[in-house]
Amino acid sequence: MTDYGHDLLFGSFITPTSTAPERVVALAQASEAAGLDLATFQDHPYQPAFLDTWTLLSYVAASTERIHVAANVINLPLRPPAVLARAAASLDLLSGGRLDLALGAGGFWDAIEAMGGRRLSPGQAVEATGEAIDVIRGLWDTSTRERLVVDGTYHRLDGAKRGPAPAHDIPIWLGALKPRMLRLIGRKADGWLPSLPYLKSLTALAEGNATSTRRPPRPAATRAPCAGC
Questions:
Q1: pTM surpassing 0.85?
Q2: Confidence label for 212 from pLDDT (cuts 50, 70 and 90)
């Protein structure tokens, strides 16, 4: 068994084609009608053939009633985590607790750099992702009035006000494959979104979970290879 005692979630992986926006929304609505738990959309802000994923998440949340929505996965190098934290909490509040947050460290660095992002090495990208999680969780934590300070190498906050708190305990999932990112999942995240073609077997899924240093991360879903990125 690979569910590790968690309830299984089933979802769709919808390509956010900008030439057929009505079809993209219709597929999300069909996912809800079919009883799926989650509608997800890849996030490639540098790709003009795709709709902007955050705008799409907001529109789909307003066009559905029950299904959760998530990016698969958010491109952290082009979406600052402090702004992302407030945007995620806001959409979660507006949707009645139907946003889940999945993050990616980045991969298409030529395209990221062309859009003004900073090119990072694999090790730097993992460290930056860990700092981003600290920023996001810290801003969501309204149990204290103390302003948030994060003294990171890649992400720094110097006394940011906290909040708003999301409507539900938003899980943070990471798109990951290599050991450093898998260990980060075990330390700081709630789940793992591996790309199905790269896993190759259920054994690879079990081995990836075993790499976690804290606990076996929740296998929230698998995702198909991105189309047209």
A1: yes
A2: low
